[in-house]
Amino acid sequence: MAESLDDLLAQIQAEFQEKDKGKPLEKKPLLEEDDLKSPPTNSSMYQPISSSQSSRSPAEDSMLSELKAEFEEKECEAQRKRQQQQQKEELKAKQREQRKREALKQQAQEWLNNLKPHSEEGLWFEEFSYSYPSKLEAAIDYLQALRETP
């Protein structure tokens, strides 16, 4: 762009001031045809205003710093609460699984007590349990598999 952003703003402001005074407007295109054909140069591109260039007062800077600190503190607190909630839920799930496992263990022990070792099921289970550290563990897995089968 041949004209800077400030020049364009000044032109627009002048046009509105002329309009308000009742004078006829001098229409000049904001962008020339040559400007549209050539790529913009770095100097004509928008450059953000850094905080050192801004027109904020020290009081505004202080207030913004306080707001930022307060926001960050609230975010940290919210994150901490989310983590605590997640830990509670994980603990509850773990306890629920332990209770299920304990109930299944009791059922497996009862099933083993009622199992007749020389019956067809007893002989099958004897062979099935060889790969387990204990018959109780084998019975737990067996009963759990029976429950999961539709």
Overview in brief:
The chain is an all-alpha fold and 150 residues long. The chain has helices at residues 5-21, 33-37, 58-114, 120-128, 135-148.
**First and last CA, distance:** 74 Å
Task: Give a short account of the largest sheet.
Answer: none
The number of helical segments is: 5
**Rg on CA atoms, Å:** 40 Å
The count of strands amounts to 0
- Give, in order, the helices and strands: HHHHH
Give average pLDDT, whole number: 81
Structural features, described:
This protein has 150 residues and is mainly α. It is built from five helices and no strands. It is elongated and about 110 Å long.
Write the SSE topology.
Elements: H1 5-21, H2 33-37, H3 58-114, H4 120-128, H5 135-148
